[in-house]
Amino acid sequence: MKSYQIVLLKGDGIGPEIVTQAVKVLDRAAGRFGFTVSYDEALLGGCAIDAAGVPLPPETIEKCKAADSTLLGAVGGPKWDTVPGNLRPEAGLLGIRGALGLFANLRPARIFEQLREASPLKAEIIGDDLDIMVVRELTGGIYFGERGRRTVNGFEAAYDTEMYSVPEIERIARVAFRMAQKRGGRLCSVDKANVLESSRLWRATVERIGKEEYPDIELSNLYVDNCAMQLVRNPKQFDVIVTSNIFGDILSDEASMISGSIGMLASASLSEGKSGLYEPIHGSAPDIAGTGKANPLATILSAAMMLRYSLDEPQAAQAIEDAVSEVLKTARTPDIYTEGMRQVTCEEMGDLVCGLL
Ligand code: IPM
Ligand code: MG
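# 3-isopropylmalic acid complex -> structure
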């Protein structure tokens, strides 16, 4: 029997409770599809700061490198808002992405048929269906560039640096082109090439890769400000979007809101290798931690993405996605509650998904 070893980074806030539900679902899927999963836990974020004094202990990196894949809950919370920047929970998240070489972040934003009314956009703008894949570069650009403080004209000043090399752009472009090949065949590269030199290199490189290697894909370019506007004006025009770390951070939040389902959206962060890190795109919601109100479905769907992209268990992935789709017909956590449905807790939602598997 195939056996997979997974590291769990439960993290902070609602992290532990949503990961617990995803593990339950993974185990259930394993039983049904004939594989086993073993788990090891490691610390990341605020919980790591409390236990080890740093947001990313070296042991966490070692464990993740040795595992078949990693499932992350969420990190951060007001408790750690006052610690120095390089010791914040978020620094742990950036650190693990860097340490594992997770340069490609896949953030699907799709509307679940049962949650259509939850989108803040008018029905005619959404149309029949909305399914956008944001491919965000995750280990370069301004989030990883040189930063610091200095004195300018006698005043304190701070700077961060946006820089991309050709190989960095090429590899994320290839991930995005291949994604477009598996989907609708359209890729939109987003930059600020009218202002930024790094964006001019980005655009020229993506265009060259498109011409040389993916002539079958319809490539377009948009400036990031225009893209932000187009996402709410006419989101249906998008299939795959590829963009830099900071633009992808911002646009993927926007795209997820359009779907009206931030508690429902999963993400995958991939390296050249297979293992990857999977996490819901929502945050740690410290205000509802421990109340049973958290929605575990994004984490459960992240586990499904893991089965598909890292573990070669596409049937199990599909079964989980189908079960989530089914459960939405009758049961809802408070964040997606609508009248006539049964309101359930985080744990009950996990049980219901298991029951449908
Ligand atoms: C995300 C988050 C992180 C990021 C933060 C918490 C560092 O916003 O995953 O999008 O900016 O990458
Ligand atoms: Mg973000």
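# post-check
DSSP finds twelve helices and 14 strands in the chain.
Residues 292 and 348 are 9 Å apart (CA to CA).
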